[in-house]
Amino acid sequence: MKAVLITGASSGIGKALSYQFAAEGHNLVITARRQDELDKIKQDIESRYSVKVIVKVSDLAVDGAADRLYEKLRAFDIEAMINNAGFGDFAMPWEMDLAKAQTMVDLNVRALTTLPLHYARDYSDSEATLLNVSSIGGYTQFDVAVTYWVTKFYVASFTEGLAQSLADQSKSMRAKVLAPGPTESEFVTHSSEKGAIDGDDLFPESAFITAEQLAQYAYQLFESDQVVGIINGENHLELKEPIYPYAQVPH
């Protein structure tokens, strides 16, 4: 079965992405930690759209979980992989909960590296698409979320570099990175948990877009020929060529 993988699909952006891609006729493999929420989404999507939804429960922050999830994906033809799972933290570096920081790096960086490298190995010569969700924090710095921002710098640079490598080697697979700003989801709440700063006070209401609007932007990026999709200060999507400098190895 041909399907789109969406991680972090139980709520917020991941949930909205699931509905957006289903509405466009794509079968889905959705994954997150919460079985009950995934099952509700599966039932609702399948009642609305003529698509199939497969649920795979996984906590990708756990060591080895990304490898185990990918092995389960071998039963499907994954036409697109959307790495959305991740969380942040609002605290000065010297006030940050260390355990939370370590888990954040495991999820935002390690799992996000593992799944795409498996995917590129199997699909680089296929008409497949990798879409990693970074953040505007992948292109700027913010003093109350330094560790989180660094993970998103990694996501942005890793994805842009992969995209360039695929293009340089004339591979068929595409890699893209979406960089949203504040979005109406559980992100701010989760980022404030065990954090030293309440995220509700950091952004004005006008800064937020809905998860559904972001999912529409993600689909525009998915269908485009561009590599980077950044949500600008007016909450509009800007499609761009790679931003990070890239140098080929001399031959």
Give the topology, please.
Blueprint: E1 2-7, H1 12-23, E2 28-32, H2 35-48, E3 53-57, H3 65-73, E4 77-83, H4 98-123, E5 129-133, H5 146-168, E6 174-179, E7 183-184, H6 187-192, E8 209-210, H7 211-223, E9 228-231, E10 237-240
Parallel strand pairs: 1-2, 1-4, 2-3, 4-5, 5-6, 6-9, 7-8
Antiparallel strand pairs: 9-10
Q: What is the correct CATH architecture? A: 3-Layer(aba) Sandwich
Outline type: globular
CATH superfamily: NAD(P)-binding Rossmann-like Domain
**What is the rounded Rg?**
17 Å
Q: End-to-end span in angstroms?
A: 40 Å
Strand share of the residues?
15-25%
Order of helix and strand elements from N to C terminus: EHEHEHEHEHEEHEHEE
Q: Give the % helix.
A: 40-55%
Quote the average pLDDT: 91
Major sheet attributes: 8 strands, mixed
CATH classification class: Alpha Beta
What structural class should be given to the helix and strand makeup? alpha/beta
Number of beta strands: 10
Number of helices: 7
> What is the fold-level CATH name, i.e. the topology?
Rossmann fold
Low-confidence spans: none
Number of domains: 1
